[in-house]
């Protein structure tokens, strides 16, 4: 009983709240069953994972978790909560902790649980980074500017959730992961780096095959290289990388990737000291002791990230000023291409992929290539969706409908 009283106090402290800005899908019909699941604020400080992350001085991580009624009601009444599975959803580029809730997740989950279409589950909505829209959920001790997402997503994040939500079933068979865009890449990356930790994956189009197949499905990210330069008028310019700016979503896309896959600093040694501030409160002062760097400066971008917070991190683009792959750096990206990371890590994982020919930035072609690679070893459930005249199916617009399939996929997997 004491444990559940503590849970009650925690729930009250965090405040179960409705997320503002959720898509208005109209009033539920009188005969449609609904549930009372709510959204919990689960912000946390992950010191080690974000110790030197760009513009994150206090190592903060903002997250929201959907909690179904079967877990909330018993807590409030002091009874034993029903154990439930966990689904982790990773936001796309520029998406925050409210991304999925803004596309109707709470309403969809409440209706599907109440009708019995899916079993109750907690859904942790993970934000992408705010600075450049995201670092592809990639990063380790050699890429501290991006943050240690490899350590976080399949490790310490799960530890945190299970410690704070004791009614979660702490078993890989009751755990799924999914994402959109960069979140799709991040979901597969986490599952590959943490084999056996997830029972199911659901994703929509994203950067899932960096070099494509060179045929019907194009060349993946390579086809975007000239666009990233041309939109800034830098294609063919000798000083392209000294003038490269972070003014567009495509620029952010490559900057975030470069900080994750080809940062200028390849090894950073840092130290921390406890200090007193002007009001007498203790804080941690973090200082970089030494760095090792990439010495080839052909595609180095060193004018975007300043040293205002002491974290002056530069990066290398994977293409030259003509928009062609630059092998020294591009090969670093290919090391993180999913097909080059995959051996047999996804055995036993139920895989669902939603895809649309209207997806931006060659994501449809990259997704098709990745599906082809997966099907050489695993069964893959694919849903191809289309838009209609005047309203292309770009992914986010159709996410309300896709979430139904994604949640059902995970629910069925949890029953296996």
Protein architecture, described:
This protein has 12 helices and 15 strands. By secondary structure, it is α/β, with parallel strands linked by helices. The protein folds into 2 domains: 243 residues, Rossmann fold, CATH 3.40.50; 116 residues, no CATH class. The protein has a 9-stranded mixed β-sheet with strand order 1-2-5-7-6-8-9-14-15, sandwiched between helices. The protein has a two-stranded antiparallel ribbon with strand order 3-4. It has a two-stranded antiparallel sheet with strand order 10-11. Helix 3 packs across helix 12. The radius of gyration is 22 Å and the shape is globular.
Q: How would you summarize the topology of this molecule?
A:
Blueprint: H1 2-14, E1 16-17, E2 38-41, E3 44-45, E4 60-61, E5 64-67, H2 69-77, E6 86-90, H3 105-115, E7 122-126, H4 149-164, E8 175-179, H5 182-193, E9 200-204, H6 225-230, H7 240-243, H8 249-261, E10 265-276, E11 282-293, E12 300-301, E13 315-316, H9 327-335, H10 338-341, E14 350-355, H11 363-374, E15 380-384, H12 399-415
Parallel strand pairs: 6-7, 6-8, 8-9, 9-14, 14-15
Antiparallel strand pairs: 1-2, 2-5, 3-4, 5-7, 10-11, 12-13
């Amino acid at each position: 009983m004491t444990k559940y009283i503590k849970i009650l106090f925690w729930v009250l402290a965090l405040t179960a709240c409705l997320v503002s800005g959720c898509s208005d899908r109209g009033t539920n019909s009188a005969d449609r069953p609904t549930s009372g699941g709510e959204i919990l604020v689960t912000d946390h400080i992950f010191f080690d994972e974000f110790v030197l992350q760009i513009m994150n001085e206090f190592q903060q991580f903002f997250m929201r978790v959907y909690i179904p009624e079967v877990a909330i009601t018993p807590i409030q009444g002091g009874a034993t909560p029903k154990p439930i599975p966990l689904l982790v959803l990773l936001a796309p580029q520029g998406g925050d902790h409210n991304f999925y809730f803004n596309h109707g997740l709470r309403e969809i989950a409440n209706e599907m649980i109440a009708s019995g279409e899916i079993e109750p589950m907690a859904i942790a909505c993970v934000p992408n980074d705010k600075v450049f829209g995201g670092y592809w959920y990639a990063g380790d001790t050699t890429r501290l500017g991006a943050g240690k997402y490899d350590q976080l997503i399949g490790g310490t994040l799960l530890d945190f959730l299970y410690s704070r939500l004791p009614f979660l079933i702490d078993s890989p068979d009751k755990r799924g992961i999914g994402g959109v865009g960069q979140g799709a890449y991040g979901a597969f990356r986490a599952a590959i780096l943490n084999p056996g930790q997830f029972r199911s994956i659901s994703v929509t189009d994203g950067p899932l095959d960096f070099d494509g197949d060179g045929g019907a499905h194009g060349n993946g990210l390579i086809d975007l290289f000239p666009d990233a330069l041309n939109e800034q008028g830098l294609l063919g310019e000798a000083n392209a990388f000294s003038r490269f700016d972070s003014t567009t979503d495509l620029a952010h896309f490559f900057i975030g990737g470069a900080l994750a896959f080809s940062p200028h600093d390849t090894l950073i040694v840092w130290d921390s000291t406890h200090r007193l501030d002007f009001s007498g409160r203790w804080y941690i002062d973090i200082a970089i002791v030494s760095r090792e760097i990439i010495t080839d400066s052909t595609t180095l971008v060193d004018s975007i990230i300043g040293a205002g917070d002491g974290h002056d991190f530069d990066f290398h683009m994977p293409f030259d000023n003509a928009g062609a792959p630059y092998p020294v750096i591009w090969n670093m990206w290919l090391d993180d291409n999913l097909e080059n990371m995959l051996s047999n890590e996804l055995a036993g994982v139920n895989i669902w992929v939603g895809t649309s020919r209207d997806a931006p930035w060659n994501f449809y072609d990259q997704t098709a290539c990745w599906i082809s690679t997966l099907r050489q070893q695993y069964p893959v459930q694919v849903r191809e969706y289309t838009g209609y005249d005047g309203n292309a199916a770009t992914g986010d617009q159709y996410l309300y409908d896709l979430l139904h399939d994604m949640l059902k996929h995970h629910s069925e997997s949890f029953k296996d």
